[in-house]
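Journal club prep — side note

Before the paper discussion, L.F. wants everyone to see what a predicted structure for a comparable chain looks like in token form. Sequence:
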Amino acid sequence: MVPSCKTCCASFGLIVAVLCIVITLRTLTLFVRTDDIIDCKISDDDFIKVDETRKERFRNGLRIPTISHDIGDYDTDALIALQKLIQTEYRLVHSSPIVTLEIVGNYSLLYTVQGTNSSLTPYLLASHLDVVPVKLDSWDYPPFGADIHDGFIYARGTIDVKLGVFGILESLEYLLSKGFQPSRTFYIAFGHDEEVSGYDGARSLSNRLKDKGLTRLEFLLDEGLNVIKGLVPGISKPVALVGTAEKGQVVLRLKVEGQTGHSSMPTKENALTILASAIYRLERNPHPSMFGYGPEKDMFVHLSSHMSFPMRVICSNLWLFGPLVAKFLSTKPSTNAVVRTVTSVTMFHIQEISCSYIYYIPSTNYTRAIYIIHSVQTIQEVSLAIEGGHIHPFIKPDTSVQLRLSADIPFREITHIVLVNLYISGVMIGNTDTNHYSRFTTNIYRFTPSFMYPEDLSRFHGNNERISIRNYEQAINFYYHLIKNVEKGLMTLHKHGEEL
């Protein structure tokens, strides 16, 4: 017996009603616990204020152009100048009997702060001394002038990432002035070539730690995600993103071998046209969205209870609206990289032929493609998706980085002292020096205590990089309380305010 139209409509109405009830219940009942945080006021005894001395130390460091151009190509004179500045300005750090400095690989710095209890596993604070190149005529202010305008310091390295170097040193200098000695030994590592892979810097630092007998770290904190505001739809308050995972990376060289010939008698295909077609297919056929299968889904679930009601409905019910969110995230380069493996073609090489052979059809061509791999995919999957016909991909040596996913427990040591109340774990879409230290721990946290607004995203590795003096002050206090809270067992929580 065929159901009547009336019966079908009633059944459909019942399904819709049940669906609406489920969506409403999840929207209203899904909450994520946040910890109470005690305000850290400028008047508190444990607040480090950026006075003229601290401000000028930072600015002097920013004025030194420690540019890395390529692997093995960095400004050694500038790096030595920065070393001397650091050793001169931070006198307690470099004279304390509990602090040891080693210069590794000629230009990187490794500090050991000796604890009183050797049974406790050490931890590591990392940053880097080098910066990326600049286009002088594209800046409003000199990129190495460290000029101050409207409360902001403009200079290359302000957010990437000399605020980490000087923030850590200022906090340690202050602690030592108060007679501090930790119970747990910790290391401070400043690499000199992070911007070009860290092969000479962080890799050498990691090897030195191994030579010193280190086998395990409690956790590692390095540069990474930031405090963002206005970047998450439906949330007006600042959100601290702490990177507990990073995407993998591999550089594939796509090689095509064909037949040589003369342009007056062309074949249907040659090596150049085959490779051009392959690159076109790569661009036109992106990898599928993996939203919902990796850790990025948890970020939206965690934030849902803080969103405006329409966004809260969507993000509380990703089991239903997940494809809609994935489609929206795919529309912007910055968020598209979160939900899928992305590809960048960065080099195209044609077989070298002299000008007298302009009519010669080359037999071999290749291109270089960088793949930032989603956490649920593998290098092998990416390679197999490309291979076929005349295309022969192979992995460029020393460019493969697998996903790193951190454990949860020491995560509280970071999140309890971030700059704002709302914090979540996130996925780092790039790679940093953490890769060279990953053999010591799975508890790797990628967080830079700087504020990012939508208009600031282009400043990262771009023009007019800047940080507010207030934010630099917050960064110093972040590292200060991190070191203290590791000692305290995280019983006292601090908030450093949201304003810049």
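L.F.'s comment for the group: DSSP finds 15 helices and 22 strands in the chain. Keep this in mind when we get to the figures.
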